[in-house]
Write a structure and sequence with these properties.
Blueprint (H helix, E strand, L loop, with lengths): L12 E3 H8 L3 H9 L6 E3 L2 E5 L3 E4 L2 E4 L3 H10 L4 H9 L9 H6 L3 H12 L1
Antiparallel strand pairs: 1-3, 2-3, 4-5
Length: 121
């Protein structure tokens, strides 16, 4: 789990309990998603939180943003720490333009996964 300094203060985060409610899952399932690398968490103000951008709502259903788990896996396999992954996902890249996370939330996960693969190997 990452420290607060990994993300800028303006990156919205949600407590794990709220993530569980949004996903209609028990809190233990959210912790399992973190352990499995489907999402990442960090500690902010003493509380375990998840970046709100990791969740997407389609109609009445909320789920993990498409492409995020695969991107996390590629970067972890390439030796990146969760802190490095969080930092990379939310850092603006002028060549995109925007952050990798903003591209994922727009459904442009193939480009982000390609870039992650290039970084990791």
């Amino acid at each position: 789990m990452s420290e607060v300094s990994v993300l800028a203060d303006d990156v919205e985060t949600l407590p794990v309990a709220e993530v569980a409610t949004l996903l209609n899952q028990p809190v233990s399932r959210v912790h399992q998603l973190v352990r499995d690398g489907q999402i990442l968490s960090l500690r902010r103000d003493g509380e375990v939180v998840v970046p709100a951008a990791f969740l997407a709502t389609d109609g009445e259903r909320t789920d993990v943003v498409k492409g995020l788990p695969g991107t996390i896996t590629v970067l972890r396999d390439g030796g990146y720490s969760d802190e490095d992954i969080l930092r990379w996902l939310f850092t603006v890249d002028d060549s995109l333009p925007g952050s990798p996370m903003s591209f994922l939330t727009e459904g442009r996960h193939r480009e982000i996964k390609r870039r992650a693969q290039a970084m990791a190997f």
